UniProtKB/TrEMBL annotation:
The keyword Cell membrane does not apply. It comes from Salmonella enterica subsp. enterica serovar Poona. GO terms for molecular function: RNA binding. SUPFAM superfamilies: THUMP domain-like. It comes from the Bacteria. InterPro entries: ThiI_fer (IPR054173), THUMP_dom (IPR004114), tRNA_sulfurtransferase_ThiI (IPR050102). The keyword Flavoprotein does not apply. This is tRNA 4-thiouridine(8) synthase ThiI. Keywords: RNA-binding. Residues 61-108 form the THUMP domain. Coiled coil: none annotated.
Length: 108
């Protein structure tokens, strides 16, 4: 299971040194809160987001709920990594996932 965490806008407008320090603090806060749910949790810092990977699928709702209570997080995106070979393969997998939501809708 993978979560991509988007930073609060106040963090993104800071200078590089302040931004890196705030992201490091936020990453530490995420580790401290989530270590109770999964000991093998991986938290990876990037320039514009933070990646959280956990192995225990049973804790998905608890982890997502805990992430919503951490200051400095703007959005939490649940991601399902799916391998693909080409653009048509992406289309087929997306269609299988979203067919009912898109039925009867138009692009324009």
């Amino acid at each position: 299971m993978k979560f991509i965490i988007k930073l609060f806008p106040e963090i993104t407008i800071k200078s590089q040194s302040v931004r890196l320090r705030f992201i490091k603090i936020l990453t530490g806060n995420i580790r401290n809160v989530l270590k109770h749910y999964d000991e093998t949790l991986a938290v990876v810092r990037h320039w514009d987001n933070i990646e959280v990977r956990a192995k225990d699928e049973n804790q998905r709702l608890a982890i997502r709920d805990a992430l919503t209570r951490i200051p400095g997080i703007h959005h939490i995106l649940e991601v399902e990594d799916v391998p693909f070979t080409d653009m048509h393969d992406i289309f087929e997998k997306a269609l299988a996932q979203y067919r009912e939501q898109l039925e009867g809708k138009t692009f324009c």
